[in-house]
Structure formats: structure tokens, C-alpha cells
Specification:
four-stranded mixed sheet; Butyryl-CoA Dehydrogenase, subunit A, domain 2; single chain; alpha+beta; Butyryl-Coa Dehydrogenase, subunit A, domain 1; Butyryl-CoA Dehydrogenase, subunit A, domain 3; 11 helices
Amino acid sequence: MDFAFTQEEENFRHKLRAWLERTADEVFGAERAALGGSAASLLDITDDEHWRPMLEYHRRLYEAGYAALHWPKQWGGAAASLMEQAIYQDEVLRLGLPVYGANPLAIDRIGPTLMLFGSDDQRRRYLPRMLTAEEIWCQGYSEPNAGSDLASLATRATLDGDHFVVNGQKVWTSLAHRAHMQVLLVRTDPAASRHKGISYLIVDMKGPGVTVRPLKQMTGEGGFSEVFYDNVRVPRENLVGELNGGWKVAVATLMYERASGGTRHPVERAVNELIALAGDVRSGAGPGPRDSRVRQELARLAIDARCLRLNRYRALSAQVHSRAPGPESSLGKLMATELNLRVAAFARELLGPFGLLERGSHAAPEQGQWAHRILAARGLTIAAGTSEIQRNIIGERVLKLPRG
């Protein structure tokens, strides 16, 4: 595939870059500069002081036409070309900005899933408000006893006239504290086999019977929550796809999520920052830039980051043709999170004990952002399906290897 950019595409890049840099500085201001230019690291959704600028950034993203470049025009997107989408992702990740603003789950995966499986009424009702972030969305999948083994979920929904009545619990639900709406996996036929008897519902997070309890992470952030459902009534019209046929819909959402695994965290930017960090390491903190092993490891990380970018370009092509990403999307998710983990581990080695200093310490390198990355990196290999699950998918469904 030829990745050379035309003059028109380069003009798009320059226009986009100028807009992003100006807007990020205006919205996130000095705090973004203090964190090395990364606005994505500002997002602690439990903190109104951080959430307000994220909503403002999303508003500007939408008004400029950048909120959903990959969506069809009939649903408010830009129907951008593959190369325009690649350029957009490159520039956003270069600046460490959130790719989909304040409503990433909706625009990245839930909206495209509704385009494939939702009814016309559901598309007309929900898609426009996703784009404007008038309604923030979350995804109710994982449970205390159903994480990577999602098909063992136990949250129940029983039909009562024109409504489902939902009881159960979800956990590790991103954005639940801010969400207005949720897509929820429930078991509607407990007698069916594990992958059958599951349905995919749209739930009002502000409705009676829904309780959200934010979870504090080891990084100090509160992006996850546990959610409890106590006789929550959901209109039958909020069923997406077929009754007891929700696994197919759920997998499509997961494939979109995994296809974007390389964009949720700016790994290539982190590698470049690690290279700059290595040049600033002083003796006594860890191995310095004159160490040949350090140079070799940095080169390996830089090469892998470039390969990740090229694989991301390839993954975009399926969405350009309005198809749900296939199992090959697991490759991007696996590459991105494992590379991010290696970057964090090597940063810890370079910084020595200084890598443990968090933001607020006068001796913390780069305002403590490396300590944050070191703490957060392992969790990303678990979210959206563990690395072990991704390897199984790649082996069985892409490489066609026999099951072990």
C-alpha cells in the first residue's frame, strides 16, 4: 500500500494541525503545557474542573466537523477518505489529544454498531446526540465474574409486557459516572447456551433503579465505575438486533473497540517522549543515552511504534467500506497495549527511583507523568480483552491454528 500523501492531503494536515494546536491551547491552556502537552492525561471524569474543558473541546471538535470523520454523511459524519482519517489520527495522537473528544465510546464503537444493527428509529434518536455530546454513552459489559469470559455474564432481563426488567451488576464501566445512556449486555434466556440467550439493550443511566459507584484507580483517577441495576425497566423498543441474538451485536462493538486500540493511547508520542527523556537522564538515576543497550532498545521501540501506525492505517480500510472490523483488529489492540507496557517498563528502568515520584513532587520528572504511565500501563493490557484473549483470537481466527 502506498502511504505517500498528495498535496491536497498535506494541505488538510496543515489546516488540521493549526486548528488542533490553537484549540488545545485555548481550551486546556497552561495545565496542558505543564503535562508535556498531553490533554488526554487531564481527563479525570469525576473532577468537574477537568470535565468542563473536555466538553468544550468536544463542542469545538463537532462544530469544526472533526468529531466523526469516519461516520457516513447521512448520520452527521464527514465520510472522510482513508488517508484523511489516518492524517487526523496522526495529528491528534502527536498532540496527545482525545481522538473522539468527550464521547469516545459513542463515536468510536457504539454509534457504528447502531448503524449496523440498530433500527431506523434508534439511529435517528441517538446518533445526532452522540456527535454533539448532548448524551454521553458508556458500555455495560464486564461483571465481577464475567470479564474476559464475557459470555458467562449473569445480569438478567425478563420481559414484562412492553418492558425488560433488568437486575444485576456491571463493573469497570468507563464513563458511567458521566453517562446519560448505556449499551447493556443482559441474559434474556438463562436456559440457552452461553453465547445464546444474550440481548443488547439501550438503557437510560439516569432512570430509576440504576446506581453508579465510581472506583478510584491506583493512578488516583476515577474513570471506572461499578453499576447496579435494581428492577430497571427498559422499553422493548430499546432492544438492538434480535432478542437473544445480542452476542453478534456485542462482538461488533468489541471489534470496533479493538480496532481503535492503537488510537486510545498515543504510543508513538510516548516513544518519542521516552527518547527525549533518555537524553536528559543524569548519572545515578539509571542507564544513560551513551549506553548502547539503551540506544538499541529505543530503536526497537521506535520501529515497533511505526509498525503500529502502519497497521492502524490498514485497520481503517474496513471501516471506510462500512464493515465492522474483523478479528485482525485484535492485532492492533495487542500491539498497542503491549508496546505501551514496554515503554513504561523501560522508562522505569531509565529513571530508577525517580520514576516513582508522582505529580506534585518537586523532583518528579516531567511533572510526574511517567509515574502515571508506569502505574496505568498494565491495566491497558487487560481492558477490552486481555492480551491472552487477543492472542487466542489471532491464532484461531486469523492464522487458523487448531484450538489448544
